[in-house]
Design goal:
By secondary structure, this protein is α/β, with parallel strands linked by helices. It has 17 helices and 9 strands. Strands 6-5-4-3-7-8-9 form a 7-stranded mixed beta sheet, with helices on both faces. The protein has a two-stranded antiparallel ribbon with strand order 1-2. A hairpin with a 5-residue loop joins strand 5 and strand 6. Helix 12 packs parallel to helix 14.
Amino acid sequence: MSSGQYTRERKEDKPVLAICYDFDKTLSPDDMQAQGYIQSVGYDVGEFWTESNELAVKNDMDQNLAYMLLMKKKAAGKVLFTRKALEEYGAKVTLFPGVEDWFERVRTYGAEHGVIVEHYIISSGLKEMIEGTSVAKKGAFKRIYASSFYYDADGVAEWPAQVVNYTSKTQFLFRIEKGVLDINDSGVNDSFAPDEIRVPFRNMVYIGDSDTDIPCMKLVNTYGGHSIGVYSAVTHDKAKVYKMMRDNRTRYFAMADYSEGSELDALIKAIIDRTAKNEALEAKFFECKNEQIENDRQNTHEERRKKELLLQLEGSSSFANTHAVVEKMRSINDWNQNDRECLFEIALQNSQVRYILGDTDVKRFYSGLLQNSQVLSEKAAEVKAMIECKK
């Protein structure tokens, strides 16, 4: 689907499950910048982040802009700060166990169970470094949403092109929801009918490791999706995932081990299984709802009112309510033959109506129906006899 200069994703015939990942310490044991780049510019990792954070605080600056500026400044005269160089650093990034074949393996499992699985990165790290990883080069991700640079004609980084911080991460969930994936496409603000949503939040999984993932986790949780906190497969420290669970930020936690047969592997497969069954029910719901809407379109307001009153009279369980419904019915003059037959059937079947056929208002209403019937059916004749008997 296309809208102007942007291409949008269409709603699929099968349910789509979007699995969204933070990157640093979610798919990789450490910050991507700390796996070669920081050392190449002569810094201790801790010193770099201390200086970056101080730069942000002193200048009322976004922390991500601060680290991006510091990376560019510290590269001067030491390393080429180009797109190619950043991708090469990304190629050296270590990944947690099982990550290499995780994405295709999960996609395959989804396809076997009638679910289209898509993988997305939503990270405050550098897009260029993520693009340099082996998994990205193999086409693991539908989209990579991360901080990035603008480059000159020689490929040298000049200026931040995109900055993704922990609060702005949530916008990308809405883009994924609606299939409006381009970051400049304002169509993300358009209203979509519930059955037109490409990836409902209930079909989203967010996997992260720390406080910076909380806004996304909370949003996914609120709308029925699945948030998973992962803890390091290296240190096995669960302190952060315990806190996220305690604060109701995550629904599950598991070790960041993406190997086949791992706890995380079993959890994602269970979510895929549930998605397949749940979406079959959702599809049935929308089928019924759309049929009801179409029926309403084909009937006037007056026709719908008549049907509602017929249902009320049929289900009436008290004399007072029966009189009240009949009073409303008396204001309607155009009861057709099918409507009259329904009313005669109700008079015979509902004891609350049958017992008060002789009351003035009820008798007057039903007598009018009988007078407007050119040929009395068996039910109409029976009602007429009952009215005459009550005299």
